[in-house]
Protein: Glutamine--scyllo-inositol transaminase
Amino acid sequence: MSLTIPYENLKTLNRPFEAAFKQKFTDFLDAGWYILGKEVTKFEEEFGDYHNEQYVVGVANGLDALILSLKACDFKDGDEIIVPSNTYIATILSIVHCGLVPVLVEPDINTYNIDPQKIEDAVTERTVAIMVVHLYGQCCEMDPILSICKNKNLKLIEDCAQAHGATYKGKLAGTFGDFGAFSFYPTKNLGALGDAGALICKSEKHYQKLRQLRNYGSEKKYHNEIVGYNSRLDEIQAAFLRIKLPYLNEINLHKKKLAAIYLSELSDNFIKPVVNNDFSNVYHIFNIRHPERDRLKAYLLENRIGTEIHYPIAPHKQKALKFMNHLNYPVSTEIHNTTLSLPCSFAHTVEDIHYVVETLNNFIL
Ligand SMILES: *Cc1c(COP(=O)(O)O)cnc(C)c1O
Structure:
């Protein structure tokens, strides 16, 4: 059965850029330079300009951006990183991969983001950093988090994979912390045509270290200063991203416009995202919550509307993270059990969203 309104359609989403992509690919073939060339350098500059930041390092993907930020800090085995309990598992995996200990903190049920009031209780002698996630396109409440970092001398890493262009009190996601880690996975608000990622950092020292870490510990060919990785931003993906970056604000505005329709027209049978003027949400994901989520999802599918669940299983319940399967995070579990993500992409039209709203408002329990 083909869907009338799929949750996402990347081909449609990228169609406006197709001619430019094709031209770029031709130029790329002509240039014959495939790794760490001028496209990567220029994308780093332009992504930095967008954020008004000086230090940007392109990397292979969002997970690596998180891993390399932790590696750049030289934490010791067993050091603790505070991280939200409801996030995509990548955030937590980055900590595990570095031999560090993820300490999960519950979200605020109204924002779905880490609850600043609960962070302080989780800080111990071994805490070295907070890794916040700006989930679904909305920034965390940064003021209290920044003051905890300052008071307890903790590093701050932002997982911005869902928050390109989102702001808190007018300041962009990725510019609050020591590191802002981005993914350009194709479905993200700024999406490549494959895997890609980037890091914003605040110091020259971290910048140099990250540039070495992504390229075998080397800035100068065959001179390996540290134990690095191969995590370079691909040249052709950087070239494609340079085409889309100037449209990021337009993409975000489109998503905001669609979200505004849901917010004003969906009935109160559904729990909608809470709007607060301190936050400019870019709605990477527009989610609602409903106690009969699975039935609602099936009902929408019968009406040929695609939806997703972000996420069906909480990270602490995943087999991969057996060591935390016994822990209890009731707020996170409640969100995982009731959340449903609705179509809200650059490829959707206002009419699509009206159809989804109408269908939803006709849902009978
Ligand atoms: C997508 C995503 C990542 C991982 O990005 P990749 O590029 O797929 O590695 C990390 N954190 C969050 C919150 C994400 O949504």
